[in-house]
Amino acid sequence: MCQKEVMEQSAGIMYRKSCASSAACLIASAGYQSFCSPGKLNSVCISCCNTPLCNGPRPKKRGSFASALRPTFPTTILLLKLALFLAHC
């Protein structure tokens, strides 16, 4: 079976996807039922499924590191001016 764990921690949501025997996955899922509170800190939810790729892709993050590094408009202008200056040297 496919097994998916979703852990909500202070650092963010962590996902673990793996394969497990039917018995192991169902036991783990049942064992963590009392810890599964989606949206709450320290929640751990385990789900099982048995069709191809049924545990699906990881949800996209709302913000990403790449977008944090995107230069702002003034920075872009400054870099263009620097490039033009260096081209004339």
Automatic annotation (TrEMBL):
GO terms for biological process: acetylcholine receptor signaling pathway. It comes from the Eukaryota. GO terms for cellular component: plasma membrane; side of membrane; synapse. It is found in: Cell membrane. Keywords: Disulfide bond, Glycoprotein, GPI-anchor, Lipoprotein, Membrane, Signal. Transmembrane segments: none annotated. InterPro entries: Snake_toxin-like_sf. The keyword Oxidoreductase does not apply. It is a lipid-anchor; GPI-anchor. It comes from Cavia porcellus. This is LY6/PLAUR domain containing 1. One of its GO terms (molecular function) is acetylcholine receptor inhibitor activity.
